[in-house]
Automatic annotation (TrEMBL):
Family according to the record: Belongs to the universal ribosomal protein uL10 family.
Biological processes, Gene Ontology terms: translation
Pfam families xref list: Ribosomal_L10
Name under which the protein is recorded: Large ribosomal subunit protein uL10
CDD domains for the chain: Ribosomal_L10
Gene: rplJ
Top-level taxon of origin: Bacteria
Assembly behavior: Part of the ribosomal stalk of the 50S ribosomal subunit. The N-terminus interacts with L11 and the large rRNA to form the base of the stalk. The C-terminus forms an elongated spine to which L12 dimers bind in a sequential fashion forming a multimeric L10(L12)X complex.
Length: 177
């Protein structure tokens, strides 16, 4: 592989790391060709991009990402054979795929993941990654919490307004009598 070809691979990978805020690094060593093909097929069906890349390329590409520190990956995650999974829309999709694939083949391992520049290292983080809420889900929860008190106030004012009108009507009827 020429220096230019290596540079192109690193540049493409760096572009993905900068544009997609979440990615998963896996290890699939020891898998047969059929098992790797099955994994790739599952990735394709779910819109997940899966690439096997040299660790040095991943490291160099991560160094170009502004505003994020991926150095904790260097000692633990970027060892052995590495594959990178990207999904542009759903941060949970790769984690769900890994968990489902592991039901039939335990050779696929999660080495690490980055979700909005938060690092998750180790296979034991898989369930945590699946249960994480996306940014949109969190914003929706916050908006719902903020709207709840406002709805209660409006409801109280509307019901209280009817009660107040009833009290005033009763008082005015008493005065007339």
């Amino acid at each position: 592989m020429t220096r230019e070809e290596k540079g192109v691979i690193i540049e493409e990978l760096a572009q993905k790391f900068q544009t997609i805020p979440f990615f998963y690094i896996t290890e699939a060593s020891g898998m047969t060709v059929d098992q790797v093909n099955q994994l790739r097929r599952m990735c394709f069906e779910r819109g997940i991009e899966y690439k096997v890349v040299k660790n040095t390329f991943i490291k160099k590409a991560l160094e170009t990402v502004a505003g994020a520190d991926f150095t904790p990956f260097n000692d633990t995650v970027l060892k052995g054979q590495s594959g990178v999974m990207f999904h542009a829309e759903n941060q949970k999709a790769p984690a769900q795929l890994i968990k489902e694939f592991r039901k039939t083949n335990d050779k696929l391992q999660l080495k690490g993941a980055s979700i909005d520049a938060s690092l998750f290292i180790g296979a034991d983080q898989l369930d945590t990654l699946i249960s994480l809420k996306s940014r949109q889900e969190l914003i929706g929860d916050i908006v719902g919490l903020l709207q709840s008190p406002a709805k209660n106030v409006v409801s109280a004012l509307q019901s209280g307004g009817g009660k107040l009108a009833g009290i005033l009507k009763t008082l005015s009827e008493r005065e007339e009598a």
